[in-house]
Design a protein that fits this description.
99 residues, mainly alpha
């Protein structure tokens, strides 16, 4: 039976993050996905028995590394998207002044 504290912490993290998934701000969505991933990793570690602890740690560390790289990629894409939107607004503002 998994420890109650770890499972309840993971459930709280998942519920809080799920409420942020519907936000319009992309960075908040990215952070919500990270919190959900952390909750899932907590659930996985609490479900592992004592016999497979080393294998579970290896899988969770690998998952954390992949999540970190995914977050970096997501942050770069959000930054690029905001730059493109600002450039589009500047272009449309210049076009409106010329006419």
């Amino acid at each position: 039976m998994p420890p109650f504290e770890e499972m309840s912490l993971a459930a709280i993290l998942l519920l809080l993050a799920a409420s942020s998934l519907f936000d319009r701000h992309l960075l908040r969505r990215l952070l919500a996905f990270n919190i959900i991933g952390t909750g899932i990793f907590l659930i996985l570690m609490s479900l592992v028995g004592q016999n497979a602890m080393a294998a579970a740690h290896g899988l969770v560390v690998t998952g954390l590394l992949v999540a970190l790289l995914g977050t970096a990629l997501g942050a770069l894409l959000i930054r690029r998207l905001e730059r493109l939107e600002q450039a589009g607004e500047m272009t449309s503002a210049k076009g409106n002044r010329a006419s």
